[in-house]
Design a protein that fits this description.
By secondary structure, this protein is of the alpha/beta class. It is built from 11 helices and 10 strands. Strands 6-7-8-3-9-10 form a 6-stranded mixed beta sheet, sandwiched between helices. α4 packs across α5, α5 packs across α6 and α6 packs parallel to α7. The structure holds adenosine-5'-diphosphate (ADP) and magnesium ion.
């Protein structure tokens, strides 16, 4: 028996196994397998329209796969009824490309919303949690502001704070630094790393921005034509000799990616 056989194995938080997904005739995902362990930060890289957001929807159980299994903490997401799905979703924080704040609500009320709807915490307890999360994203003074009074980068921070209000085990980020200038984007990248370490959450980050990807990731997976064609540490992906991976990373117009696209 090898020593690892007897060591306690931590169950992965998210497991996608042999996922296929088609919308009508259109095959979006083929045999996609992706496993996220506790505290990992997995960056899913891929072309626009490649199925990255779709993978996040599969994990949330918003969309059933055509084939394969999706598990969260060992439980089959595709078999969950509404009640269990909702319970699972409470453990998942979502951060969207556009912060998706409700414009008619103050920062405080935006952040309080999930706690008011899903917990029986008192107003004072909620206020305290709101303040704590605002401090974690460096926005302690923004409590009474309206979203329209904030810059894009500030709104993004509030979006991050909202994503962690329920102390999630998993945070899903969909293009978190899209549309931000490079400096603010770098600040957000650092915040993503910091939050994942502070709250011990697993993160899955979808992006097509390479610089962010390599900075944030503990592991990178690359989606191309519906398949995960490469997976590894940032260093492994960066030095990959696979022509598609190499082309994607160099941003070159020469290579298999353009040749094969329609
Ligand atoms: N509900 C849907 N019905 C039909 N096609 C869809 C649906 N959702 C996504 N698609 C298609 O699936 C492909 C992948 O979409 P998406 O996951 O949003 O890509 P990405 O996030 O990588 O840019 C796109 O071609 C998109 O048009
Ligand atoms: Mg998308």
């Amino acid at each position: 028996m090898k020593p690892e056989d007897s060591a306690p194995v931590e169950r992965p938080l998210v497991e996608l196994r042999d996922i296929s997904l088609a919308f009508g005739e259109k095959e979006i995902l083929k045999n996609v397998s992706l496993v996220a362990g506790r505290r990992e930060r997995i960056v899913l890289l891929g072309q626009s329209g490649g199925g990255k957001s779709t993978i996040l929807r599969l994990i949330l159980g918003i969309l059933p796969p055509t084939g394969g299994t999706v598990k969260f903490n060992g439980a089959d997401v595709t078999r969950m009824r509404r009640r269990r799905l909702n319970k699972m979703r409470q453990k998942i924080g979502m951060v969207y490309q556009y912060s998706a704040l409700i414009s008619s609500l103050s920062v405080r009320d935006n952040l309080a919303l999930p706690l008011e709807e899903l917990t029986d915490k008192t107003r004072a307890e909620i206020d305290e949690l709101v303040q704590m999360k605002l401090e974690m994203v460096g926005m302690a003074d923004a409590r009474d502001k309206m979203p329209s009074e904030l810059s894009g980068g500030m709104r993004k921070r509030i979006g991050l704070a909202r994503g962690i209000m329920m102390d999630p085990e998993l945070i899903l980020y969909d293009e978190p630094s899209a549309g931000l200038d490079p400096v603010i984007s770098a600040v957000i990248d650092e915040l993503i790393i910091e939050l994942s370490e502070k709250i011990g959450a697993t993160s899955i980050i979808v992006t097509h921005e390479l610089e962010s990807a390599f900075k944030i990731a503990t592991r990178v997976a690359m989606l191309y034509k519906g398949e995960i064609i490469a997976e590894g540490t940032p260093e492994e992906i960066r030095s990959s000799e696979d022509p598609v991976v190499a082309q994607f990373i160099s941003g070159s117009t020469q290579g298999p990616i353009l040749e094969t696209s329609k």
